[in-house]
Target: Arginine--tRNA ligase
Amino acid sequence: MSKEAFVNVEPVTPLVEAVETAVVDALRRALPETGGPEPLVRRSDRADYQANGALPLAKRHGRNPRELGEAVAAAIDAPDLIATAEASGPGFVNIAITSEAVWKQVAARLDADRLGVGLPLAGERIVVDYSGPNVAKEMHVGHLRTTIIGDALARLAEALGATVIRQNHLGDWGTQFGMLIQYLSEHPEAEWHRADEADPTANVAVLDRLYREARAVFDADPAFKERARARVVALQGGDEDSRRVWGDLVDVSAAAFDAIYERLGVGLTAADLAGESTYNHLLDGVVAELVEAGIAVESEGALCVFFEDVTGPDGEPVPLLLRKADGGYGYAATDLAAIRHRIGDLKADRILYVVDARQALHFKQVFATARRAGWLSGDVEAVHVPFGTVLGPDGRPYKTRSGGTVRLMGLIDEAIAKAGAVIAEKHPAGEDLAELAAATGIGAVKYADLSNNRIKDYVFDSDKMVALTGDTGVYLQYAHTRLASILRKAGAMTAPMAPAAPMSREERALALHLDAYGAVLAEAMAEREPHRLCGYLYALARAFTGFYEANPVLKAESDEARDNRLALVRLARETLAHGLGLLGIAAPDRM
Ligand code: ARG
Model:
């Protein structure tokens, strides 16, 4: 996608940027010897904005900061935009915007495409590597965060104009499949692919159990271990029977994962599958290239990459293991083939690996190797986007009572059931609320995850996450239904806005908050931190509540006030729905 495709879609310049321009002009007038001064404009609760640019400048030029602040305030000349500019404190300048400029800004955003948000990432190709569950294992709570965060970042990047390539790096290759296939061949009675036609996740639950049985035999019985090893060789050598069973394992597992993606409303499909096996045929070539370049070296029969700055607690180097002494390639070799492919063939400008924090060293080593090999160079960027652990009610990594892994589908169902109960209280008995319960339950799970600082651990508390009040997905969805309901009742009662009409404090606060939407999206993307968008939307819902409590909309004191408030409600609804959409959360009109 080229930048040219978007030339007709002009973004709306945020008010803060217009203020910055005016402040820069004033700084230059007040201090002609300055070059390119920084305006340092922030939102403030004392005025609309506060400009702090005079402070560092006064210091640099040996001027009294307060006096310079006063000179800047006096020099501000933007009568349509800025109503008052006053110096305060040691040299800040408090700036209030004219009501007319704010109302016009609301109108401009409503008229514009995409709420007037620009496309700063147009022309960029971003690979997002996320989810990556493992074949023959159930998706568990550990896969929740990568799936939800990866999905949100992919949506965000697309909304900012990037071309996004989703890559589901399925764990579908490796010696463990020799073990499992051998076990299945010795237990023909295990009807694993026919367990349940209706529920694909049931099939993989059976596989998960068989996998653990196979592992136990593998560990206990040396003769089986030998047979399993031979099976790996057969599988990798292309033995037809082994390949067929392996293909079945992948299909059955992928169907189960798809069921979860669909239930979660996550945009991953079969087309995004790029599992470890995809790179199998490239491994010889990739490793040969690294050996030739002197990057990979032999060590005790294995092939490794060593790093000066990576050592263990004992000071011994911790290498990246490409090929084991028995000749088998591992996880690292696959990731090297993947990164070479993503840059060389998929033409990625940026690759985001949404994988838990425990794999930080692995990615550090993979990226360093790719850099040495010259695959990762120039402006191309590979980023590990780590995240913390989901904790159980006891504040420890979430496990079942017996210490097993917590099934993801079970957690989702639990949240949906609890959301359903909360919603049912607001509806007459007997109404079918299944769809709404799913939308709110899943929204609750996603919001609880995304609204936490990504790198921190959090406690999975299904009661708290479906609460109607507080910082929850349900609260935001509910705010959206209130906005939608006002607009529904207003019906055709919408006339053009009246920018000359007065503006209340709450109207102003809401309008200025809405004007910052695009900046928050860009910031959330730059930091890869969806919680910034969550915080913004929560503040939006609260600003709306404050506005609505103080300013009647349908029963406004004048037609002009009503039209302006309806416009504000419309912009708030569209912004909230858009933002929730980027988080992968539904925005129902009624609940
Ligand atoms: N399958 C891996 C796991 O469960 C995650 C894959 C992450 N992506 C990657 N390119 N290594 O830990």
Summary: The longest strand covers residues 82-88. The two ends are 39 Å apart (CA to CA). The mean pLDDT is 93. Residues 313 and 465 are 40 Å apart (CA to CA).
